[in-house]
């Protein structure tokens, strides 16, 4: 009996795996774990991010291909374009995460019968952090992704509705998993390093940029001293972060640099009293889904993305005064109730087995037009 040949799948648009950077990288790592029996997978990785000593030929059954460019910032555009062209000669299916390189899809599609699937990663061109030229580029990249790809993936109902209203396009709604994170008990060693672990403390983790509303959070935190507040992020990477770190120096505020070691990070995250999530853009945010899988009661910035992710069952704020009121009114009864609620939603919607099955089914089935 002949063995059926597996389709060659190329995954494009991330820093790479092993995952050490962000949500897309974790998505790729989990897809490789669950789909390597069904597809012959190649993951494109940034040779600038992984040192020569760290670079591997394979990881969890997937081949790794290193490109000598940065995967983020301005270089993400040539990085994605190069990998799309390279993969179009070597793969049957291209899963493209983000729209940075999608300007070239009509050209590649003209010469190729390969199948393209694009996760547009939020309404990227609307983000305040981009200048006019980059916003225009990303807007057209989004248009070309929708017009060219066999299927477009959205990770949040708000974005799915946006594509339907803007392009009359019925995208595939596939969110993120978060059950790779685990609760880590507090140890004497961790308390020695982080004494606040013996207290009820508030916690957040994110990139330090204005759209994550760090200034609003810190303004509220500075007005209360009952709870220590811990936030992990890249404070030294921008003037915004440096200014906030210099401004908010108080005994109860701990503004920590990025922590990439999973046990240390999850010790701090999984034992907090209340999780504060300031993201206002980008769809379903991986760090929010992870917090929910850790059963963390959550207060989130009040935008449709976050309300959709938490099914309107978290606490929500838009101003420092509202966040301060939530913190001041928070008690043990609310902590227990909301912990159970967030975990229940996460177990129903945000597990990697479910997410990977949706990706696998989408890429395996016969293509059906998503227009109309």
Please give a structural write-up.
By secondary structure, the chain is an alpha/beta fold. The chain has 2 domains: 7-177 and 352-364, Rossmann fold, CATH 3.40.50; 188-349, Glycogen Phosphorylase B (Rossmann fold), CATH 3.40.50.2000. It has helices at 23-35, 76-88, 105-111, 132-148, 157-167, 188-193, 214-222, 239-247, 262-270, 286-293, 304-309, 320-329, 332-349, 352-364; strands spanning 7-12, 39-46, 58-59, 62-67, 93-97, 115-119, 151-154, 172-173, 202-205, 229-232, 253-256, 274-277, 298-301, 315-317. The strands form 2 sheets. Strands 3-4-2-1-5-6-7-8 form an 8-stranded mixed sheet, with helices on both faces. A 6-stranded parallel sheet has the order 11-10-9-12-13-14, sandwiched between helices. Helix 1 (23-35) packs across helix 14 (352-364). The protein is globular and about 65 Å long. 43% of the residues are buried.
Write the layout of secondary structure elements.
Elements: E1 7-12, H1 23-35, E2 39-46, E3 58-59, E4 62-67, H2 76-88, E5 93-97, H3 105-111, E6 115-119, H4 132-148, E7 151-154, H5 157-167, E8 172-173, H6 188-193, E9 202-205, H7 214-222, E10 229-232, H8 239-247, E11 253-256, H9 262-270, E12 274-277, H10 286-293, E13 298-301, H11 304-309, E14 315-317, H12 320-329, H13 332-349, H14 352-364
Parallel strand pairs: 1-2, 1-5, 2-4, 5-6, 6-7, 7-8, 9-10, 9-12, 10-11, 12-13, 13-14
Antiparallel strand pairs: 3-4
């Amino acid at each position: 009996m002949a063995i059926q040949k597996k389709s060659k799948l190329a995954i494009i648009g991330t820093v790479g795996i092993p995952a050490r950077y962000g949500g897309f990288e974790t998505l790729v790592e989990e897809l490789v774990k669950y789909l390597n029996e069904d597809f012959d997978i190649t993951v494109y990785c940034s040779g600038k991010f992984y040192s020569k000593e760290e670079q591997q030929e394979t990881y969890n059954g997937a081949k790794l291909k290193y490109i000598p460019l940065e995967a983020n910032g301005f270089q993400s555009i040539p990085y994605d374009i190069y990998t799309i062209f390279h993969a179009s000669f070597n793969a049957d299916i291209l899963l493209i995460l983000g729209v940075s390189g999608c300007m070239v899809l009509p050209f590649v599609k003209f010469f190729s019968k390969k199948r393209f699937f694009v996760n547009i990663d939020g309404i990227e061109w609307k983000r305040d952090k981009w200048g006019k030229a980059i916003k225009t580029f990303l807007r057209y990249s989004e248009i070309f992704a929708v017009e060219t790809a066999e299927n477009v993936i959205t990770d949040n109902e708000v974005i799915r509705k946006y594509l339907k209203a803007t392009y009359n396009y019925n995208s595939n709604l596939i969110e993120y998993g978060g059950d790779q994170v685990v609760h880590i008990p507090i140890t004497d060693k961790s308390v020695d390093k982080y004494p606040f672990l013996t207290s009820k403390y508030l916690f957040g983790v994110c990139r330090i940029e204005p759209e994550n509303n760090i200034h609003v959070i810190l303004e509220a935190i500075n007005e209360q001293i009952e709870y220590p507040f811990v936030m992990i992020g890249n404070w030294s990477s921008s003037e915004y972060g440096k200014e906030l770190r210099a401004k908010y120096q108080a005994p109860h505020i701990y503004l920590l640099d990025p922590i990439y070691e999973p046990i240390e990070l999850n010790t701090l995250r999984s034992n907090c009293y209340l999780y504060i999530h300031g993201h206002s853009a980008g769809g379903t945010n991986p760090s929010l889904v992870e917090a929910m899988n850790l059963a963390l009661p959550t207060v989130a910035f009040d935008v449709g993305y976050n309300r959709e992710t938490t099914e309107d069952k978290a606490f929500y704020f838009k101003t420092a005064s509202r966040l301060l009121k939530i913190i001041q009114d928070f008690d043990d009864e609310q902590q227990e109730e909301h912990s159970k609620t967030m975990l229940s939603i996460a177990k129903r919607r945000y597990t990697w087995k479910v997410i990977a099955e949706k990706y696998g089914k989408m890429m395996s089935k016969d293509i059906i037009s998503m227009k109309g």
